[in-house]
Amino acid sequence: MSINFHEEAVALLPRMVEVRRDLHRHPELAFQEVRTAGIVASTLTELGLEVQTGIGKTGVIGLLEGDHEGPTLLVRADMDALPILEANETDYISGEAGKMHACGHDGHTSIGLAVARMLNERRSDIHGRVKFVFQPAEEIGQGAKAMIDDGALEGPRPDFSIGLHLWNDMPVGKVAVTAGACMSAADIWQCTITGSGGHGAQPDKTIDPIVAASQIVTAVQSIVSRNVDPLDTAVVTIGAIHGGDAFNVIPPTAEIKGTIRTYRKETKQMVHQRIREICEGIAQAMGCEAKVEIISMTIAVDNDAAISDRIAGIAAGLVGEENVIRDERTMGSEDVSLFMDDIPGCYFFVGSANAERGLNYPHHHPQFDVDEAAFPIAAALLAEAAASFVIPEN
Ligand code: NI
């Protein structure tokens, strides 16, 4: 690599920490990132980027035009916090009771701004443009879609797309870049079973939806164990089941709600079909009726093999080959996948845990915090990865 972004990123660490801690003190939930978006927009405007606000309600786009013709690269950072009461004792603890940056998106925003700053210094070397996308509402899986609905992938349409997540499952100094599917598609499924209610002592005069629901709960377990290819992977979870209020009443309806996680489109279709067949079939056999609704939240994050390979190589230059993990996969989901749908790219993980300092709580935990020593690695890697698309080797 001809450009050393690491030194610059290290020099930018105090600024990154300051921005991140400020955002951490003022967390904002999905689609409420007004203050955060304001900071992002004013920073990008100061840098001289072409800035659009209000994209997908509270999203911000900053376009960095290079001096030469070339491709368009999308760089994505998410901005939202979670409805969690922070239980840390730092001097940058959340000042908003019940709201907390418990996933590291404060860090992503700060790192994204640092990368914009570094690449902005290189306008004269850039062939093409970098579209910085600061996304709201990742935690509810709606922000990417809202931004795309507002034209985030048009004028200009990106040719490539990259992004990162700070990752407390790995210590600082490790980076995970995985080719192919590495985060799953997420769907919500719900089934309403309608029978006929009545007295709990006279079940014969009713059609009991609770008994039908119970059998559905058991039967859908066979989808993963009997229908999914053993070498493929899927999750079918029931997270909620409701029916009835009293001990002696058979209710007229029961409701089941859950999530489906898959990597492959074919598997997703098959799981949907089996859920419908099982719910409708069992309900019918029990004299009930089932209404199944499946809502797609996100598609799988499916990293381009060649791009992932290149970024893994850049990561190895930064942290050493032995610290680059090539097969980190999770059934968790990320709506960054919508920015990568038909747009080749790579979404990677930068280790942010430090067990000695107690900075290794899992994401979404009330004591979650990251080791900010991860920031220069993350910023340098993201900048160098971006440069590999828009700054030809010299
Ligand atoms: Ni997150």
Summarize the structure in words:
The protein is an alpha/beta fold and 394 residues long. The protein has two domains: 267 residues, 3-Layer(aba) Sandwich (Aminopeptidase), CATH 3.40.630.10; 114 residues, Alpha-Beta Plaits (2-Layer Sandwich), CATH 3.30.70. Helices cover 33% and strands 27% of the residues. The protein has nine helices and 16 strands. The chain has an eight-stranded mixed beta sheet with strand order 1-2-4-3-5-16-6-15, with helices on both faces. A four-stranded antiparallel beta sheet has the order 10-12-8-13, covered by helices on one side. A two-stranded antiparallel sheet has the order 7-14. Strand 1 and strand 2 form a beta hairpin. Helix 4 crosses helix 9. The longest helix has 21 residues. The protein is elongated and about 80 Å long. 51% of the residues are buried. The model has no long low-confidence stretch (mean pLDDT 97). Bound molecules: nickel (II) ion. Nickel (II) ion (NI) binds next to loops.
